[in-house]
Amino acid sequence: MYTNLHIAVQALYIMIALNLLFAVLLYAVKLRAMKRKKQEDRIQVKLKDYLTYVQANLDSAEPLRAPPWTMNDAEREVLQDRLNDRIECFAGDQRQKLIRLCDDLGFVKHHLTRLNHRSYRIRLDAAYHLGCMRVKDAAPTLLDMLEDHPFNSALFVIARAAAKCSRNEQDIRTLVRLLLRHNRKSNELIVSIIADAELDTVLLYTDFILYEHPAYIRIGLIGLNTFTDPASSAAVYRLMDSEYADIQEKAAEVYLKSSRLLPKHVVSKLLRHSSVEIRRLVVEALATMKSSTYVEMMEAGLTDNDQRVVYACAQGMLRMGDRGVTALCERAAASQGTERGVFLQQLIEQELRQLSIQLHNVNKLTQYNTLLYAYDKTFHNDTRIYRVI
Amino acid sequence: MWTFDYEALIEACMGALREFLFLYSYTAIYYVIGVTLLLYLIFGFSMRHMVAIRRGIRYNRNVKLSGYTPAVSILVPAFNEELTIIENVRSLLALDYTEYEVIVVNDGSQDRTLQRMLDEFQLEPIQPVLGGSIHTEKIRGVYHNPDYPNLYFIDKENGGKADSLNAGINLSHYKLISTIDADSLLEKDALSRIARVYMENPEETVAVGGNVRIVNNCTVEDGVVKDVRFPRKLLPALQHVEYLKAFLGGRIGWSAVNGLIIISGAFGVFQKDKVVAVGGYRGGYPGEDMNIVIKLHRYCLENDIPYRVAFCPDAVCWTQAPDSYRVLSTQRKRWGRGNLKNMIEEGVHMVMRPKYKIFGLLTLPYNIMFETLNPYFRLGGMIAILGYWLLNMTEWSTVLVFALVNLFSCFTLSLGALFIEESAFGRYPKLSDLSKTILYSFLMFFGYRQIGVWWRLSGHIQFLRNNNSWGTMTRTHFDK
Q1: What is the mean pLDDT of residues A182-210?
Q2: Dist. CA A296–CA A290, nearest whole Å
Q3: Confidence band for B394, pLDDT divided at 50, 70 and 90
């Protein structure tokens, strides 16, 4: 009779077999990894002199020569990895020399062949290496790979390779289109991928912000944020009224970063903006400029509903010289007895405390004297005070 | 004359008991088969996802994301952490990440945590500007030193870990928050690795968990784990294999189906606005790390917000495992209480309701049946075996066969988790480390798991007695 016990015994045999199989597999994986590590270390020692030669001759006029021995597959693989690392570390002529060396060593041809392999694993590996070596010829195939690729981490590996291999702006546009199809708002990652392209991308980003599609606008704004181009300030100005809050914020950030002079009417408009983040950004931008022209506007910012904006305003005014600190102290004194007044006074006292321990620095000493004078004049107006000049 | 037939009554009772035990044996078998199949299913997802993880590690080695990574506020709740806090903060200040701040929250420590922080980093009181408004215990002071521009220190009245995290959220300046335990060390690139996972799908990724590994017996220099070694002591060694199984065999799979129920309090990254939207961390009870993840699932599913709770196994946080029975039992009882509380407070409202998708239909039933109620099934099983033996219903060989089937089916999963570790990460370099891990994976079935059941049950009893204390965690310096 076939009983549950028989089933259990059979299950036990299967389980024991499975366990043994896993254990053997585990040791096999471990031993393989250890062997590989050992081999890599050995090859590393063997390649040490050659890599020193490569490093030492990166700036010379002559092209880099291949190692003076015939390499086996393992050695080629390790050398390829080391060269990839160096290609990523260098730019300009040095990078080009390393890429040329890879070409001379046959790495480019090898991986171009693998790029059309039936196995996805091999195609992906080839894509990565071709990207590292900036092989322009691989760009069309890499973009083709992205056409019907599902959304996962490997998508971005191929996309990065495609960006590195891109021949022109059109390739980047195609790349962006293919990535945006997935509609995942990975805009920062896309911009970081575009940054790997060996192209001037300012014009591309400036063009993107003129698109209707908000995703392109976002990418354009994130991209422009890394440049301080006064020309882009005019282009992003209209986006501060966008229907999307995040676009408004990004546009304000780019605008404030790229403008050398902030018109008062724009500042005033931004200080009234509904977004706390934009109000804080504009106050911080004014503080960076340290121009006393904006003191009145900063004063207006002290009445903001959000404490972070008030804090940024106060911090900015403390760095706006005589006019800034006097205005801040007066405003703090005027609102004495209120929560805001206490907050401002504590901020001033905190600044005084911090400056008082840095008096060995002349700039700090001057700031301290200015602030202390303004503070005493406003808060202790019944006592005799002296100004040290 | 009517006489009471005791023998007949006893016989009837025994018959009923036999019948009950017979039915129970079937229930138990189906329970074990159910849990094993589900574990295998999740493990299958983990294995499937492992390929993508390996590729991610290999092909993102040289990727530079700096300049585009999201800014992160790292929150470090600290209670009596004078021995580890400085090393921990130093390691956090040296992270390989573009824009972040470290907010250490002293939760009314009774040791010298406050003084050590003030002395070491020359912190001065500042006027805090709070961005959030989650209610917390009274803040005694906020400290800062412009020489460490991205370090803030909050000193507050004792209110528990959740309360400290909420205080940190209120002060935080960035849109992402990361929670780190004060007895843990983050690897330099851990935050960048999590950021990459987040950046692939930033809108939907509400939380990303990191991998937690045991630091006991490893060499730590300047807050960095230099030499990875297998734990020397028994309890940390058992916890090491337990963590490997839970994180690599389980969490990878659960995250692949968006059913992850917990992000370890030791290391995780969250969207701040979502955490604030669910009311912040739930105070007053342990298990806040599970609670916040359940609340995020619930919030997103109830409001039709597309979301995912991800897991990033290559973002590593090294933590000290308890090496004494007393401390470990306190920790596990606390986990048991936290789990039960979460299931009663949140789980029962979501379980088996299609509205909550995978989380309600798979994660929660699994958690309730095989985690929360697990001690009762196990205890029931042991009593039943005793019953079978007393009533002569089975032979020892039958019990042994079934026990071995159960043991080896679970051991396969341990080996599977080890396979993921070795093929994707290989953090432990020696062959002897692998042998030890296999050995301890096997040994844990003889005593450790049974004690674990007892701890969980004790946790439930503590819950019923309204004991919600955190217990004492003994800290030691990181090995040098």
Answers
A1: 93
A2: 13
A3: confident
Q: Are A96 and A86 in contact (CB under 8 A)?
A: no
Residue B1 falls within a domain, yes or no?
no
Alpha carbon distance B473, B332 (integer Å): 12
SS3 A301: helix
B63, B126, B416 ranked by CB distance to A22: nearest? B416
A-B contacts (CB, under 8 Å): 126
DSSP state at residue B102: E
Residue B260: how many CB atoms within 10 A of its CB? 24
Q: Is B426's Cβ below 8 Å from some Cβ in A? A: yes
| Chain segment A139-191, per-residue pLDDT in tens | 999 999 999 999 999 999 999 999 999 999 999 999 999 999 999 999 999 99
Nearest to A313 by CA among A330, A328, A329, A334: A328
HSE (CB half, 13 Å, CA atoms) of A309? Answer: 24
Any domain includes B5: no
Task: Compute the CA torsion angle A208, A269, A318, A285 (nearest 10 deg).
Answer: 10
B3 inside domain: no
Report pTM: 0.90
Please provide the DSSP assignment of B155-208 as one string.
EE----HHHHHHHHHHH--SSEEEEE-TTEEE-TTHHHHHHHHHHHSTTTEEEE
Alpha-carbon span A274 to A102, nearest angstrom: 55
Using one digit for the tens of pLDDT, what is the confidence trace for A14-57? 999 999 999 999 999 999 999 999 999 999 999 999 999 999 99
Structural domain count of chain B: 1
CB within 8 Å: B55 and A311: no
Tokens of B468: 């919600």
pLDDT at A289: 85
C-alpha closest to that of A351 among B52, B371, B126: B126
- Mark yes or no for CB contact B416/A88 under 8 Å: no
Distances (CA, A) of A128 to A164, B58, B397, B424: 10, 10, 57, 18
pLDDT (0 to 100) of residue B2: 63
Containing structural domain, residue B99: 10-480
Tokens, residue B461: 């009893």
A226 touches chain B (CB under 8 A): yes
Query: Side chain identity at A198, as an amino acid letter?
Result: E
Please state the ipTM of this predicted complex.
0.88
Distance of CA A180 to the CA centre of its chain: 19
A26 vs B409: CB contact, 8 Å cut-off? no
Task: Determine the distance in angstroms separating the CA of B233 from the nearest CA of chain A, rounded to an integer.
Answer: 24
d(CA B382, CA A255): 71
Report the C-alpha gap between B198 and A304 in whole angstroms. Answer: 33
Q: At what angle do helices A276-289 and A264-271 cross, to 10 degrees?
A: 140
Q: How confident is the model at residue A1 (pLDDT cuts 50, 70, 90)?
A: very low
Test A153 with B52 for CB contact under 8 angstroms: yes
Res B417: pLDDT: 95
Distance between B398 CA and the closest CA of chain A, angstroms:
7
Partner B, chain A 345-374, Cβ-Cβ below 8 Å: 346-347, 350, 353-354
Q: Is residue B427 part of a domain?
A: yes
Residue B270 in this model has a pLDDT that exceeds 90: yes
Which helix (H) or strand (E) element contains residue A345?
helix A339-356
Give the A window 106-145 contacts with B, CB below 8 Å.
Answer: 124, 128, 132
Q: pLDDT tens-digit profile of B54-92? A: 898 899 887 878 789 999 999 999 999 998 899 889 989
Query: How far off is chain B from A251, nearest CA to CA, in Å?
Result: 16
Nearest Cα residue to B297 out of B364, B252, B210, B251:
B364
- Give the pair of three-digit tokens for residue B426: 């290989």
Please name the member of B124, B125, B423 whose beta carbon is closest to the beta carbon of A29.
B423
